[in-house]
Design a protein that fits this description.
The protein is an all-alpha fold and about 100 residues long. It has 2 domains: about 40 residues, no CATH class; about 40 residues. The chain has 3 helices and no strands. The protein starts with a helix and ends with a helix.
Length: about 100
């Protein structure tokens, strides 16, 4: 079994945005965020051991490495963006 984190995150954010829009239209405050269950799906190609476990350490390691690379890329983009903002703020001080 597995799930797509990005897909579930996007769905959750979409639910929150829809709830906020409904609040703006109706003027009523929602009773709280309604959490939807995570959609878990069967992953093809995983071998099940006699104990019923089908976790593939290679697959999990690859997913973790992919997530780390995406995080690092996002982190570098943010650093670059903050650097540009700081340069713009301090441009008068350099003159």
């Amino acid at each position: 079994m597995g799930f797509d984190f990005a897909e579930e995150m996007a769905r959750s954010v979409g639910d929150i945005v829809a709830e906020q829009k409904e609040e703006m239209v109706t003027g009523k405050t929602a009773q709280g965020w309604k959490s939807q269950p995570v959609r878990v799906k069967q992953v093809d190609g995983l071998l099940e051991r006699p104990d019923g476990n089908n976790v593939s350490m290679d697959r999990e390691s690859l997913n973790m490495a992919e997530a780390q690379l995406q995080f690092r890329a996002g982190e570098e983009l943010l650093k670059s963006e903050f650097s540009s903002v700081l340069d713009a703020i301090h441009v008068d001080q350099k003159s």
